[in-house]
């Protein structure tokens, strides 16, 4: 079953958001070439250049920062990794 990285989950921790080995959210400000880390690519954010689909010679500046319905940026909390039992 597919999961959505931007689904906050029942406790608001965004359990499927890409994280590093310490449980910190992983972001990328790079427009392309996102490296895979812990099985997932970092979440893009910020203003990225994109080609205008109606005029491929024109670049647009598009804000790709994930946002909540109220327009505030999503800021997932750190989820510390579980300690080995």
UniProtKB/TrEMBL annotation:
Pro residues biased stretches: 74-85
Renumbered residue ranges of the record's region Disordered: 1-85
Name the UniProt record assigns to this protein: DUF4124 domain-containing protein
